[in-house]
Amino acid sequence: MSKKQDPSIWQGFKAFLMRGNVVDLAVAVVVGAAFTNIVNAVVKGVINPVVGAIGTKNLDHYSSCLSSSCQGDQGIEIAWGSVLGAALQFVITAAVVYFLMVLPMAKFLARQEARKRAKEGAQEVMEVTELQVLKEIRDELVAQRGGPHGGGRQ
């Protein structure tokens, strides 16, 4: 009987965990959780007091009633303030991530790509120049021999 050499489940799981994408994702989740605390603090410490100068400090208190009365459990109340607060947190988070992480990384990668292209371009120019010199040498040798067919030897 032939025995198949299949990797064990543990080896496959270990290989899955050691992939770069999984590790990067785990780091992103941890950093994102820590970053959420910062954004929440900014919203509670800066945004809510600014809104509080106009109305209440807690956006959750902003709501509208669809029925004639929203006393206690009666009526249909739409808590649009909490949605506004969540939207503000999302916008702030997205702005901070974009301006502090994505934009600088994009600029850095663009500079590296430009350097790489410039280096490749310089090498191409050098190769073209060498080729041009070799063609000129060939043409001079052909001319000295007496024409394009090699002419006669002297």
Rg value: 35 Å
- The averaged pLDDT comes out at 77
Q: What structural class results from the helix and strand content?
A: mainly alpha
Number of helices: 3
Order of helices and strands: HHEEH
Please estimate the helix content.
Answer: over 70%
> Low-confidence parts, pLDDT < 50 over ≥5 residues?
none
Report the major sheet.
2 strands, antiparallel
The percentage of residues in β strands lies in: under 5%
Q: Given the C-alpha coordinates, what overall shape results?
A: elongated
Tell me the distance between the termini: 80 Å
Strand order of the largest sheet: 1-2
Features:
mainly alpha, two-stranded antiparallel sheet, 3 helices, 72% helix
Question: What can you see in these coordinates?
Answer:
Strands 1-2 form a two-stranded antiparallel ribbon. The model has no long low-confidence stretch (mean pLDDT 77). Helix content is 72%, strand content 3%. By secondary structure, the chain is an all-alpha fold. Helix 2 (20-54) crosses helix 3 (80-145). The protein has helices at 9-18, 20-54, 80-145, and strands at residues 64-65, 77-78. The longest helix is centred in the C-terminal third of the chain and has 66 residues, at 80-145.
Could you write a compact summary of the structure shown?
It contains three helices and two strands, in the order ααββα. The protein has helices at residues 9-18, 20-54, 80-145; strands at residues 64-65, 77-78.
Indicate the topology.
Blueprint: H1 9-18, H2 20-54, E1 64-65, E2 77-78, H3 80-145
Antiparallel strand pairs: 1-2
